[in-house]
Every structure is written in C-alpha cells, then in structure tokens.
Amino acid sequence: MKNKFVISILIIISILLIFTLFQKLYFSKIKKNQKTRVVEKINSGQIDFNTKIKLFWSIKDFNKEFHKIEFCESIDANYICKIDNKDWFGSDFKMDYPKYMLENLTIKLNECQIKLDVSKMFNPNYSGELNKNQFKLEKQNDYYILYGFFSDGAGTYTTNWKIKSCKSERSEISQDEDAFEWQNNN
Q1: What single DSSP character describes residue 38?
Q2: Phi and psi for 12 in degrees, rounded to 5?
Q3: Other CB atoms closer than 10 Å to residue 83's CB: what's the count?
Q4: What is residue 184's predicted lDDT score, i.e. its pLDDT?
C-alpha cells in the first residue's frame, strides 16, 4: 500500500514537471515569435530625372536587434565602429544607433532596371525620405554617373555609381570634402 502511494505521488510529480516544462517551452516560442514579427516601417518613393530615367528608393527604420553591432573605445567614449562587420556611414561621432537604413536604390535607365549598391549607407537624410536635390545624374560618353549626397544633419557622406550596359559599380563612400566637388558644379 505504501509503495502504491509513493508511485502515485511520483507519477503526479512527473506529470506536473512535464506540464510545467511544456508551458515554459510553449510560451518561450510565442515570445520569440513575437520578437521576430516586429514590423519595420519602410518609406519608399520615386525620383524622376526625365521620362526615361527614374530612381526608386526605399528606406527602413534601423532596428539594432537585427544587426551585429561592434563597439570600439576611444579616450573619450565608446562608439559604434562596425555594423554587420562593415564600416558604416551616416553619423558624425557614431555614438548613437542609426535611425534609418537605406535599403534599396534602383535606377531605371531606358529599358534597364539596375540595383545600386547601398551597403553601409545609414541615415540617408533627416526625414527618412530621399529627394531629387540629393542626386545628380551625368551622361558621359557611353555611361552615366549618378552622384548622391546623404546626411542626417551631421553625418554627411557622398558616393557615386558608374552605370554602363545595365550594370553599376559604386565608388568608395566618403566623408572627405574633396569628394563633394560634384555639388559645386550642380
């Protein structure tokens, strides 16, 4: 009789333990799914250079949960030195997380749609929307150069893309004053 009682207690304890573990696993999966369902706000638009040349863009809010952030130390403070293992542009001191992330730039040039490299490009402007004044498109011999100027008010940078035969190549992104020379000719 005593053995039956002990076995019954052990069975009840086992059932309670299994039930508790199941609940813990189930609710942790629900929490994890809720985190991954975070809706990212995306702004998008179009800039018309003329009837045959259009620039399509999209910018999304930066969510640090979806990126690998690497911090560096200086004498004065810690700062963000890399995002997703790459140097990044869009902040002058890199003390705060970016607010926006340039997700897409695609230029439609005659019949070609060409996706432009936008890696490492954050805070493309203060409002989270691009406008025509940030760009200059120049026709060279058999190719185009698209210049772009990006700034959140402080972290100013520029780059350009050479576009030829339905392909593009981005030059180095720069914060140097010399790289902004194209704006003087605008």
Answers
A1: P
A2: -65, -45
A3: 22
A4: 76
**What pTM was computed for the model?**
0.76
| Average pLDDT over the chain, rounded to an integer | 86
Of the candidates 124, 120, 134, the one whose C-alpha atom is nearest the C-alpha of residue 58 is: 124
Report residue 164 as tokens: 């030829």
Provide the CA 31 distance to its chain's centre, in angstroms.
Answer: 24
Give me the pLDDT at residue 92, please: 82
Query: 16-58 pLDDT, tens per residue?
Result: 667 666 677 666 555 555 545 556 678 999 999 999 999 999 9
Q: Among 162, 113, 169, 168, which Cα is nearest to 141's?
A: 162
Q: Which of 49, 16, 28 is nearest to 134 (CA)?
A: 49
Per 3-state DSSP, the chain is made up of helix, strand and coil in percentages (nearest 5) of 25, 40, 35
Q: Do the Cβ atoms of 90 and 124 come closer than 8 Å?
A: yes
- Strand pairing of 53-61 and 69-73? unpaired
